[in-house]
Every structure is written in structure tokens, then in C-alpha cells.
Amino acid sequence: MNKSNQRELRPSQHVRIKQPASPAEATLTSTIRPQQTNQRAANSTPAHPTRCNLVNMSFSLTRLVKNVLQVGPKDAWHQLLILGEVKAGTLIGTDQYGNRYYENREELFARERWVVPANKKFDPSEIPAGWHTWIHRIDARAPHEVTDIPNDLKWMAPHTRNASGSEANYKSFSTTEPKIEAWTPKAANRG
Predict the structure, then answer these.
(1) Where is it predominantly found (predicted)?
(2) 3-state class (DSSP) for residue 13
(3) Residue 166, burial from CB neighbour count under 10 angstroms (0-12, 13-18, 19+)
(4) What are 9-63's pLDDT values in tens digits?
(5) Average pLDDT in the 132-139 region?
(6) Do the Cβ atoms of 131 and 125 come closer than 8 Å?
(7) What does pTM read for this prediction?
(8) pLDDT given at position 47
(9) 49 φ, ψ (degrees, to nearest 5)
(10) Residue 95 in contact with residue 63, Cβ under 8 Å?
(11) Which residues have CB under 8 Å from 162's CB, separation 6+?
């Protein structure tokens, strides 16, 4: 092992050896990394919490102010209540339920398309199939731009939300007699 690698390493330091020159350096890399992750998991605090939080907060604060100025205070409040953040973008379209679909290509990948629901109790299964393909990048065209797929065939049912977990969910029933009879205890009078 080289003398330059013999210094004592603190757990908060990152050791990065691109290509180990000897087997001893490879062993050094493999023995230090598990200890670092175990100690960080036990402490669960970043190396510089104040600096990281201030950088993230200033970025999100400027982004928040910029987006509030673009969408207006009423829409910003609505987005904060429903989405948990304020986003500004181009309105692509609206579906038959009143949900509005937006796109902003300056956002992070996989966050550049979003839906602002019409009601507060929004379920993602309320997104129709055409908008689902657009928002998940299955098709680059919005549903109102698609002309090669017919939407009005008589065998197609209108879109409905998934009713699982609600009062309208499917309740199965059996047409056969039960094999086990339920026991209901009867209390005797105490007297």
C-alpha cells in the first residue's frame, strides 16, 4: 500500500479510488464503504445539513415565487392544496371530467407533465385512457391530436373510475351453500 493511502480516514469522508493499483487498494475500498453506509444509516444525518437545506430551500423558494407569479394566487393555492407544490406550464387540454393537463419542458424528467384535478378527492384512476397514454409518455400526442384511433365505437364503454375501496366497489357473492356453519354464542342467564 502506498504511503499516501495510509492516512487515517474519518467515517464522514468519501474515498473514491477509480482503479485500484494493487489488491491492497481494492481491499481498502471494499472495507471502508460498508462502514460508512452503516454509520450514516445509524446517525441518519447528512454531513452538512445546514448547507444542503439552505441550497435546496433557496432553489425551491425562488421556484415557488416564480410559479406563483405565473399561475396567480388562486391557482397557486389550489395547486398547493391538491398537488403539494406550485407548478407553471402550458395547458395542453382538459378532459370530460374537468381535469386540466399541463406540460413544462423545463421541469425535471418525468415531472414535466402533470394533471391538476377538478375536485379535491382525486383518484388517479379518474384519468381517461387517452390522457393516461400522454401523461406517461406512451404517446407523444395529446388525445385531441390523435385522429387515427376512433373513440366512438359502439362496443367501447365510457371511462369510469376504479371503485376499489369505496362504497361502490364490487362485492362478490356465492351461489353455493356454505360448508361451514357460523357459530353464534348464546349467553345463559345468570341468576
Answers:
(1) mitochondrion
(2) coil
(3) exposed
(4) 444 444 444 455 555 554 444 444 444 444 444 444 444 444 434 343 435 788 8
(5) 92
(6) no
(7) 0.56
(8) 45
(9) -65, -35
(10) no
(11) 123, 125
